[in-house]
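User: I'm putting together a teaching handout on how multi-component assemblies are represented. Below are the sequence lines for each component of a complex, exactly as they appear in our records. Could you produce the 3D structure of the whole assembly as structure tokens, so the students can see both representations side by side? Please keep the chain order the same as the input.
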Amino acid sequence: MTGNGGGGDAIVVSAIRKTYGELTAVDGVSFTVAEGEFFGILGPNGAGKTTTLEIVEGLRRPDAGSVTLLGENPWPRKVKLVPRIGVQLQASAFFEKLTAREQLQTFASLYGKGTKNIDEMLDVVGLAEKANTREDKLSGGQRQRLSIACALVHDPDIVFLDEPTAALDPQARRNLWDVLREIRSRGKTIVYTTHYLDEAEALCDRVAIMDHGTILAMDTPAALVRGLDAPAHIMLDHGVLPVDDVRGFTGVDEVKDDGTTLTITTRKPAPVLSALAERGTLDGLQVRTATLEDVFLDLTGREYRA
Amino acid sequence: MNAFKSLSIAGAKGFLRDKAAVFFILLFPLMFLVIFGLLFRDAGTDKIKLAVVGDGPVVRALSQAGVVETQRFDSADAAVATVRAGDLPGAVIENGTNVQLRFAASDQNQSGIVNGLVSSVVDKANVAATGQQPRFTFQPSQVEDDSLNAIQYLTPGILSWAVASAGVFGAAMTFVQWRRKQVLRRLWLAPVSPATVLMSRIGVTLGIAISQAVLFVGIACLPLFGLRLAGTWWLSIPVFLFGMLAFFAIGLLIGSFAKTEEAANGAAQIVVLPMAFLSGTFFPIDRSPGWLQTVSQIFPLRHMNDGMQDFLVRGKGIEALVVPSAILIGFTLVVGFVATRVFRWDS
Ligand SMILES: Nc1ncnc2c1ncn2[C@@H]1O[C@H](COP(=O)(O)OP(=O)(O)OP(=O)(O)O)[C@@H](O)[C@H]1O
Ligand SMILES: [Mg+2]
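Assistant: Of course. Below is the structure of the complete assembly, with chains in the same order as your input.
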């Protein structure tokens, strides 16, 4: 049901740029998203994620570059195109004083949809109990979930979600992951931004890491981590072994002891682990291999703080 | 359900659930109507009171004339004492053919009226006593429609003012809020045309205006207030609609450039308040200085007010529809056009 041939590109973005006065919010961003792909944009605050998303959605006009959304330029607004995209804006957009169900009913009717699957939608985002609660009486996470439901209510082909899991508790976050995976399994394309790297790793087919308006890296999470060639960290309780002994093991790059934990940095974990096994110190040992977080740290040069 | 209908319903629910808005738009103007209506209910019947002693043709004529209220005293001394105390402006003591008027000269206005009144009654009694037909007849009558008392005047004025505030504040606040809360951007991404969004807001404003009209006119018609609608009251409907549109356009303009709710609120106040005072909502504009009357012509509220009054209570004919309608439509078109030029979906 995508209308431009199965398996094609749902989104083609090339060299878009957007400046606000002196500030360049998006500086030559290019990427493509295939139909049915789950694409994530990661980046610290002010990286330009929202601006990029808004340009792709057709909310903003890029100063330079071009966007093709389902085969069409989204700017200026194409009334034919908008029903095929679902958008959750970073700040929830609701009609004043309407209940959760009424919000969904209103949005559904804007798209000429009936109100049959409203209760199902509420159920999907776990708001069935809050169906008759007014928008201003919902908690931050509940508003967020309602906002996502409003983006999905008309069954769009492409879904844009700007930090959908911000403000959600861990349980709601996991539930939303299931919802997103379910949407994806129905062949929808999802483009979303997040600050949670573990989440991006778990959900996305491909991620783009952005900072200062440019894409620093873009690939599958696994390829990004592999490409990093980052060391593994082996952690032991403090005092299990003397630091100087550990320094002598083959393959150890660095050893740190902060008084509670002894951390071994290594690019060859196998010989280090066997040396530790020989000394019978495997109890309570933890191994941490590189994650997207390390990729992020490496690329942006800053510690990641969600 | 189509987009227009569901957006209108959403807007109406939003309004009805906003207690402060309901109060300011429906109940607050109603309070003015009720309070002023009750305060000035007897304004037209403020009659001069006279003390009377004795019984004869003059005292009887005074009591029946309808212009004075008489208060009967048994003795001349008692009556004069009341006048001296300043409670009554004069006492008429009729004793056979001798009619005495004792009045308080301290209030020159009142004493003049009392003197003239009593002497004219005495003159009439004298003429009647001669048994001849009077040669000259005297026929006074007031130029105003005699039913234009306080409530007749207040109802069209307060209704116009209430519709104006609801239109300006409602439209301005909605669009600023919608912009700030990203509702406008969200609507931009839905397959709904700007015209539909605009029409749905006009629909809500119209619904509110109709409730105001039904409520205010309905209550003013109660016997307690005694509003009597003129025969051509229905001609006020077009004036009412054009007025509502003109104020909606002003609200749209404010909502287009104001960045915050506070700014929109301030701008709406600046527009509505002077207009309300200078357009004859609370006091008749024809009693103010000429230059002020000229200035007030620039306010759409003045024209809505005049039009509403002409048809609701003065019973003017259809020809009186031309001027207010033309001005209000022109105003709507010009302001509405400017508003759509400066309107922003985004902050
Ligand atoms: N309307 C605007 N006017 C001026 N500057 C803006 C505007 N919108 C965004 N910016 C600036 O552009 C930059 C990128 O903003 P953007 O909202 O795209 O970041 P983001 O990656 O979404 O950040 P966050 O993670 O905080 O949501 C920021 O420095 C921001 O200050
Ligand atoms: Mg953002």
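A couple of points students might notice: The first helix of chain B runs from residue 3 to 16. The first strand of chain B starts at residue 48 and ends at 53.
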